[in-house]
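TASK: fixed-backbone design
INPUT:
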C-alpha cells in the first residue's frame, strides 16, 4: 500500500462520523502507517552502514599498504561504529517487548566482553 493513500484514508476517516467501524478502521490504518514508518527508518539506518563499512575497508587496505596513517583509519572505524550504533538504537526503540530489549542488551554485553 502507498503511504499517500493511507494518509488520505486516515484524513477521510478523521473527518467522518465517530462510529465503531470508522474508529476500528482508523486504528488499523494508524498501525499500518506506524509500521511503514518504522520499516523505512530501519531500512534507512541499514543502508547507511554499507557505505561506512566500504569506506572503512578501503581505508584499512590503504593503511596496510602504508598509504594512510592510523588516526585516519580509526576515524573511519569510528564513523562505521556510529552508523552501527544508530541502527541498533533504531531496532531497540522499535521493539515490542521487554524480552526483545533484553536480548539486544545481552548481545551488546557479549560484544563488549570481546565475544
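OUTPUT:
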Amino acid at each position: 500500500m502507498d503511504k499517500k493513500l493511507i494518509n488520505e484514508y486516515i484524513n477521510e476517516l478523521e473527518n467522518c462520523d465517530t462510529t465503531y467501524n470508522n474508529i476500528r478502521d482508523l486504528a488499523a490504518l494508524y498501525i499500518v502507517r506506524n509500521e511503514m514508518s518504522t520499516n523505512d527508518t530501519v531500512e534507512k539506518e541499514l543502508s547507511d552502514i554499507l557505505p561506512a563499512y566500504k569506506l572503512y575497508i578501503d581505508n584499512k587496505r590503504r593503511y596496510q599498504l602504508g598509504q594512510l596513517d592510523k588516526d585516519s583509519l580509526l576515524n573511519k572505524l569510528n564513523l562505521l561504529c556510529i552508523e552501527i550504533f544508530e541502527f541498533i538504537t533504531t531496532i531497540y526503540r522499535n521493539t515490542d517487548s521487554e524480552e526483545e530489549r533484553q536480548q539486544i542488551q545481552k548481545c551488546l554485553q557479549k560484544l563488549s566482553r570481546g565475544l
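COMMENT: The chain has one domain: 3-112.
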